[in-house]
Each structure stands twice: as C-alpha cells, then as structure tokens.
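COURSE: Structural Biology Practicum
ASSIGNMENT: Worksheet 4, Part C
STUDENT ID: 0417
INSTRUCTIONS: Below are two proteins. For each, the amino acid sequence is given first, followed by its structure token string. Answer the questions at the end about the second protein only.

PROTEIN I
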Amino acid sequence: MILNELLHKRFVDSEQLAKHLATFSGMPAVFNPEAPDDNQEGWEGKTQYPRVIYNFDLQANEERRSAGVLSVDLECQNTTEVTPEAIELIIRDCLRDVILKTDNGCQYCFAWARTEAFTIDDTGKTGMVIGSEIRFDILEYSLQETSDPDPIVAVNRYIKGLYPECLVIGYDRMEEITEPTKEAPVIYCRLISVDKSRETNTVAWMDGRIAVHILCPEGEVRMKMAADIVNRISLDGEIIMLDHSPMFIKRLQVNYKSDYLKDGQIYITGHFGLLRYREKPHVMKKTQVEYK
C-alpha cells in the first residue's frame, strides 16, 4: 500500500475512533483530501459529523528534522455531545509509535507536533462546526545499510542477539503496520556520520557515530532497555562486524530525556578499519612431477 492508503486503513480500523464518527457508504467518515458534500448520497444517519479529514506533505524540513507534515482535521458540531477534545486523544493514539511501511520499502513514524482549535460558521446549517487541527511530523526510518564492513548491520545484529523478541528495522521483516509493545519493542539504528580517524600502511581507521532508537509506548521499558544495552556494550568493549573484524567502542552515551522518535536514546562511536589490501591466495606457477 501507499502511505495514503495505510493512513486511511489505520484510522478506519480503529474501533475506538470509528464509534465516534459519522458513517459514509458503510465506512467511518475518514477522508482525503476533502470530505464529500453534506447533501451527497452516501451519508448514513441524520448528521455528517464528527468526521476526519487528513492531508500530508512529504517535503523534508531540516529545521524540524522531519520528512514531512501530516495534518488531521477533526470536525464536529456544537449541537452534539461529542467534542473534538474527546476524539483528539484517540487520533493521537492511532499514530503513537506506529510504523507504516509502504510498497516501496519506506517506513514512516509520526510525532505529534501541536493541536489548534477552529470554528466554521456555515449559514444555513444546523449548528456551528467546531474542530481541531492535529499536526504530526512525519519521520522516515530509511534502511541504513551502506557497504561492507557495515557498522549499522553489525549493531543491528548485536542488539538482536541481546533482545531476540524485539523487531530491528533493517534486520527483521516489517509488516505494513507495526505497533511496538512493551513485550516486543522496535529498534532502529541510524548512521549519523563517519569520519576518518587515521590511516596506516594497511588499514584506514574510521569513526562511525550511530544513534539507537528504542520505540516502545512504555517509558520505563525504554529506559531499562537503553541502560541494559549500554551496559552490555561497555562490558564487551567491541562489536564484531560481518567480516569478523572488531568495531571498538570509542565512545558511548545514553540520554534518557532525548526524543526517542527523532533523536534516539543511545549514541555509539565505533572505531573500525577498512583494509587497503585483501589477502591474496597462493598461485601455483610451476609444477614438477617425479616418477619413481
């Protein structure tokens, strides 16, 4: 599915959200990019509210460190008992920590940014339309594989060995919609930068800085896992890469107060080498046969 279809599926499949919304053609009133006219065939019942209208723009914003913006308009009428404030939390829960994977392999997560109230006074209609515009930053969790030896692949495999029950993005197969839980958190490792530290006759030594994101709705689980991963790495002192070479841990940081969606909680600076020359196999240049 494309991102638009995944968002629609996420909203309409929520039983908590659907029971508060009006119905259009047998489905909860969730629309993109705009809602049908109030007099259009398909509306069921006496009212066309509450309803949800969402739009998104996948345009990277470096200042906000996001891949785009998702805007969800929640429209209600002031003549009903259902208020936007009551439904807003359900919409935010629908997108909290959830990971959507599109057909092209892109994986997106959503961080709530702000909520703004609005009113629409439509003359001729019963009641005034009141609502909330809920904005989310769209975060893209792209695959981070580079080239061999790959520090991201090594850290993914290392953490998977510590927590087999976790889903590691880039290591495990992800479904279209993934919801992290306290029993099965989701781990995402991101390569921030790579610098050449020094070089010798045979090896170019590189310093790679890696951020580790622990996605889980339970804050105490995120803190406990971050502490445990840092302790394990500190005791081991190195992470073995796919070519069996060691990546030495040059620096290790953990920030329990950081934004786990945008920044990550663990920062690893690994020191690993790139061989200038590959091992040459022995070549047979001359043979001699002796008969006895």
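PROTEIN II
(use this one for the questions)
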Amino acid sequence: MANGTWNEYLLLLGKVTKALEQLTEVEKTKTNAVTAGDLAAVEQCMKQEQVASLNLRGLDQKREKLLDQLGMKGVPLRNIMDHCPPEAWEETEQIADALRRQYAVFQAASEVSRNALEINLHNIETIQKRVNGGEIIPPEDAPRKKADFRA
C-alpha cells in the first residue's frame, strides 16, 4: 500500500468533511430563511445545495478511485481502521471520526430544514384550499405571488 496514496486519501476525507461543513451551514441558513418566510433566500440556498452536491459527488468519485488504488474497493468508512497502515493509525482515526461527526451534524441540520419546509408547505396548501373552496390550484395555474411562510 503506497503511503503517498494513503495520505491522498486522508486529505480527500478532510475535503469531504469541509464540504459537509459548508453544506451544513447552507442547511442552517435555509432553515432560518424558511422560518423568516424569505423565499428568495430559500431559493438561493437551494442553488448552493446543488453546487455543494455536485462538489460532493466529485469528491466521492475521487474517493472511489483512491480506494480502488489502495485495494480497498467497497470498504466503508466505518471499516477503514482495519486497512490503515500502522504509522497512520492515529491520524486516520482522527480524520475518520471528524468526518463521521460532521456527517451526523449535517444529517440533523438537513432533517430540521426538511421538516421546516414540509410544515410551511403544508400550511400554504391548507390556506390555499380555504381560499379556493377546498380545491388546490396547480402551480402553473396559480397566480404569481410572493409566498409568506409565516401564514
């Protein structure tokens, strides 16, 4: 196992962690925007999410290539320590733990954001039903108005 390739792998895991940190911040910003009823900010966050997702996809493809070069194709992060060179054990453990923690933080922020969106969309649908006599107008037929998520 080439030590240089292992170091590249660890650097890549660090980049994935940073990308997840950025995506977590976008999720928190989106939650705040939804709560404030700022539709433009929500849309901006969604664009940022798309960019971050593409970045993560690229990092994941690089990770897969490095795993293949290391002879570890298909090895999940939770089993990485079973394949770690002894001289890199401590650094690998720290980087892998940081990535796992950041992923858990991202998942929690994403869940909060998704729930906030779902609640506010449900409220909008309920109000729209009342206004339209129980019938929801499809978006393409609905008049263009600024949504007030606080309604």
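ANSWER KEY EXCERPT:
Q1: The two ends are 59 Å apart (CA to CA).
Q2: The CA atoms of residues 16 and 56 lie 7 Å apart.
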